[in-house]
Design a protein that fits this description.
By secondary structure, this protein is an alpha/beta fold. The protein contains 8 helices and 11 strands. The strands form 3 sheets. It has a 5-stranded parallel β-sheet with strand order 2-1-3-4-5, with helices on both faces. A 4-stranded antiparallel β-sheet has the order 6-7-8-9, covered by helices on one side. The model has no long low-confidence stretch (mean pLDDT 89).
Length: 224
């Protein structure tokens, strides 16, 4: 494994790094939070061991900044601050585990190994794209070929549903349940009406049609 250790106490840092290297791991040892943040951002690590009280940038800020940037590296906080409130603050900042000093190296090693075995969290997809069509789920902005498209809320929901399943046929029933939360109603033409409106905005002004009708089956977004 490749492990980042950020510890300002030279004796403790050297002790941890030496022990982990003896187990066959690659270890980067840094002594301040700013350097640790730069390293964690610039390189990929399997686990990071971070002290809470660091110069330049403290451990809480370091982890909060990483999580805010979408960095999901498992983090073990290592600190003398062992009160319940301190542990809660560390975990709420985005740490995955918490080990209080003084500690046994065997326990640290076991906790690092346990973090590395955890399935990595999956980053939430916030931008959906196909061909030159882009949907930003945070800003609720839809553009095609750089041109912003104004969609009503239900049109946005319908396009999002199709984009999340691009290339896969969505039946009328699937769309009614997934977009309108309705059970099948053979009398309603709400799907056809909204597909038509969506095509007028997303496809008609452009050269390529992305919303396809699959005869006898339903609709789909082309894969691009």
């Amino acid at each position: 494994m490749k492990i980042l250790v950020v510890e300002d106490d030279a004796t403790t840092g050297t002790y941890i790094a030496r022990g982990l290297r003896e187990e066959g791991h690659v270890v980067d040892l840094l002594e301040d939070g700013k350097a640790g943040l730069i390293a964690a951002t610039a390189s990929s690590y399997d686990v990071a061991v971070v002290d809470r009280m660091l110069p330049e940038v403290d451990g809480l800020t370091l982890v909060k900044t990483l999580r805010g940037a979408g960095n999901l590296t498992p983090v073990l906080f290592l600190t003398a601050m062992g009160d319940v409130e301190d542990r809660i603050a560390g975990l709420n900042a985005g740490a995955d585990d918490y080990l209080v000093k003084p500690f046994a190296f065997g326990e640290l090693s076991a906790r690092v190994a346990a973090l590395a075995r955890r399935p990595q969290a999956v980053e939430t997809e916030t931008v959906l794209t196909v061909a030159d069509l882009e949907m930003d789920l945070i800003t609720r902005k839809v553009t095609r070929a750089g041109v912003e498209i104004d969609l009503l809320p239900r049109e946005f929901a319908l396009l999002e549903h199709l984009l999340r399943r691009k290339g896969r046929v969505q039946t009328r029933t699937m769309l009614l349940e997934g977009v309108w939360d309705l059970s099948f109603d053979p009398q309603t033409n709400v799907v056809e009406t909204h597909i038509s409106r969506l095509r007028a905005k997303v496809d008609k002004p452009f050269a390529q049609d992305l919303i396809q009708t699959v005869r006898g089956a339903g609709y789909r977004i082309a894969q691009g």
